[in-house]
UniProtKB/TrEMBL annotation:
One of its GO terms (molecular function) is nucleotide binding. Residues 2-118 form the Gfo/Idh/MocA-like oxidoreductase N-terminal domain. It comes from the Bacteria. This is Gfo/Idh/MocA family oxidoreductase. Residues 156-217 form the GFO/IDH/MocA-like oxidoreductase domain.
Length: 329
């Protein structure tokens, strides 16, 4: 078992503490948090060992799980890496691209491993179809959330959209060619609603809409490619695949769904519903990292993956600013 410590005992940190304690792959040593009152309450209620000093925690662990606000990610990760500890670090990986690139360099220099917490990669609905998404031509994504003050200190792109950016980058193996984006501040000082249109050099176009002031929650992505339309509902954990083929006497019966185009060509429509194996995505991402540490298994979401998602998110935000300046001038 890998001796693990957690930095950060907020909403998500509490979930990580609980799951690490339950895991067969980790031994939870304890946690560090700046909020002493909250930390002591958690220690009394759940028995997690609280370390008032990060150095003391690092001295007893092999892996540090960083679940703090993004602004503190770099300093915590840097200290852990320089102490030869593996790091699991929540998204966004860091506050700036330069910090993320420095962490990648430090990991290599100190010969330790790092993984980024882009949890939607482990969502069972996406896992059920991920291998079937091949050379998509168009991607449509909606991630809508009801208002929650937590996370509103950063633009919605870094808070929510970055989930979808990572998923898209994991299936579109092509450089970004063009970005068009817009963001609107409604209740926060940073944009609460955002849309981005990303054109890749492969020709794929992704249209991404994100809101954190919606009346309902939605997390859906649709992939359109030559042989299929693939729909993923990350919230309901459901997937659907729709395929078409030429309709012939051999493959059509009374129950077939047929579409006929203007040229009188007929297509038969197939509906497939992949088995979605329910899981705890956060536990799975943490345990996949344990396999990487112990068995040298490939890291599922690498530090470079985190860098690419952050770079794209920051480019989208920069495009907001460019649009504002253009409209002013």
């Amino acid at each position: 078992m890998i001796k693990a410590g957690v930095a950060g005992a907020g909403h998500l940190g509490k979930i990580h503490l609980k799951l690490l304690q339950q895991s067969d792959k980790y031994e939870l040593v304890g946690f560090y948090d700046l909020d002493v009152e909250n930390a002591k309450r958690l220690e009394a209620e759940f028995g997690y060992k609280y370390f008032e000093n990060l150095d003391d925690l690092l001295a007893e662990v092999e892996m540090l799980d960083i679940v703090t606000p993004t602004l503190s990610h770099f300093d915590l990760a840097k200290k852990a890496i320089e102490n030869k500890k593996h790091i699991f670090i929540e998204k966004p990986i860091t506050n700036t691209l330069e910090e993320a690139q420095e962490l990648e360099r430090l990991l290599e220099e100190n010969n330790v491993k790092g993984q980024v917490g882009h949890v939607e990669r482990f969502n069972p609905a996406f896992k059920a179809v991920a291998d079937l998404v091949k050379e998509p031509l168009f991607i449509e994504t909606h991630r809508l959330a009801e208002f929650n003050p937590r996370g509103t200190d950063v633009p919605v792109v870094l808070d929510l959209m970055i989930h979808d950016l990572d998923v898209i980058l994991s299936v579109v193996k092509s450089p970004v060619k063009e970005i068009r984006s817009s963001g609107v501040c409604v209740i926060s000082e940073t944009p609460d609603i955002a849309n981005a249109r990303i054109v890749f050099e492969s020709g794929c176009v992704a249209n991404i809409t994100t809101s954190r002031i919606s009346m309902k929650n939605m997390r859906k992505t649709r992939f359109f490619q030559k042989d299929a339309y693939i729909s993923v509902d990350f919230l309901e954990k459901k997937s659907e695949i729709i395929r078409m083929e030429d309709a012939t006497e051999d493959n059509v019966d009374d129950f077939s769904m047929i579409l006929e185009n203007a040229e009188k060509k007929k297509k038969k429509i197939y509906f497939e519903y992949p088995d979605v194996l329910n899981n705890n995505a956060i536990l799975e991402e943490l345990e996949s990292f344990a396999d990487s540490i112990e068995n040298n298994a490939p890291i599922r979401v690498t530090i470079n993956d985190g860098i690419q998602a952050l770079k794209l998110a920051l480019d989208i935000i920069d495009n907001f600013e460019a649009t504002k300046l253009s409209s002013i001038s």
